[in-house]
Amino acid sequence: MIELDGSQGEGGGQILRTALALSLVTGKAFRMDNIRAKRPKPGLMRQHLACVNAAVAVGGGAGQISAVNSAGEAVRIGETTLLFTPGEVRAGDYEFAVGSAGSCMLVLQTVLWPLLHAKAASTLLLSGGTHNPMAPSCSFLTLLAPYFAGNRQVLFEIELRRHGFYPAGGGEVRVRLSPPAQGFAPIDLMERGELLESYAECLHAGLPKGVAERELAVLRQGLGWDESRLRNRGLRSNEGPGNALVAVLRYEHITEVFAAYGEKSVSAEQVARRVLQEVKDYLSHQAPVGPHLADQLMIPMALAGLQGKVGRYWATELTEHTRTNARTIEAFLPVKFSYEPCDGGTVISLQV
Fold it and tell me: Annotated catalytic sites, by residue?
């Protein structure tokens, strides 16, 4: 059984999701202690328990798989220890509900790679938050899907049926997963290429119209974008209240997505300045892969590496989140990540 310390590195939920995914892929059991030890509320929250339950479901169900605490009992919210023994992954049609405004995209992140290793296509119906702080958004994963497939035929397609924001939740997405017939493609992202398109999109529901206008105005002034690149998307009132400001830079070889979310006691200008700063930071570099995508690419690159397809990518920075994810992957797979400084960024390569 692989022993993992959930307090290592950035000490968040990514360690748990990566461990669950690769346990199902490899058939290796693991024990994790100190789950989410560095978060304000350590242990499993509702969305993390939903990830565990989803992993159990795609691994054959409770009769074929075990997810218990140190006392051998079924894990619950607040649990800080998990012993997980995987079963055989089964393709199929699944429905997973977080049951709160917790991110359903994190549930997708957990079962994505195991189901892409299955022998047939699968469909997921996920409900919960679709645009959440501290999680990849539906917009992020939809626009970046091609890069997980090495810029070949996409491995998954997301249909957003209803937006879900914190604290109300209530979002719904349908995901179609297609296992690659020729195995996973190598990832090689070393240049951006020509800038093809850039725009900002303000998603809002149940909020005063002026909020979106104020957020977009900050980006217009800070980036010099004209009105044609600013999209004010008012949603149905029953999809709110909620607000997400998303900026997209689409290049020849990469698309990057930046987002910030409205919250109580935070002004529209403050929300917009967060996005503005991330965009400016990215534009100050030449590296194609931003900090949020950098750790997301590690699992598909490692899985391709197992088939002898070695990849690399140039990231604007090497975060502790990325290093932590790498260490978790290395615990399950016979691979090693290497890091080489390059012009203010880092080239992340795979060794097998």
Answer: 321
